[in-house]
Write a structure and sequence with these properties.
mainly beta; Jelly Rolls
């Protein structure tokens, strides 16, 4: 169980830090059907694992759908976002950690 609070990240999206260290952070994002992770970028390298649900991701203008058990890497400063097609959970890892999430 994480000691970090569950917070609203976007409408229909919650975020909870699961573990953190200055070099790495693990974060759970839970999405309602149709919820969006708005397009954004950051200097952190990110890996995303789809724990459940189905998502359409945009990464530097290219769109790809991902479902349970699939994962991918988002390079530093790439513009990315997603739309939830079926309610679910994403597990994201960031290096270095996202201090803005603390």
């Amino acid at each position: 169980m994480s000691a970090f609070p569950i917070v609203e990240a976007d409408p229909g999206v919650t975020r909870q830090v699961l573990a953190d260290h200055p070099d790495l952070m693990v974060v759970s994002f839970t999405f309602e059907n149709g919820a969006e992770g708005k397009l954004h970028n950051h200097p952190h390298v990110q890996s995303t694992f789809v724990k459940s649900g189905r998502f359409r991701f945009s990464l530097d203008g290219a769109e790809t759908e991902y479902g349970p058990g699939e994962s991918f890497i988002i390079p530093s400063n790439s513009v990315h976002g997603c739309v939830c097609l079926e309610p679910g959970e994403l597990i994201d890892c960031f290096t270095p950690r996202r201090d803005d999430f603390l």
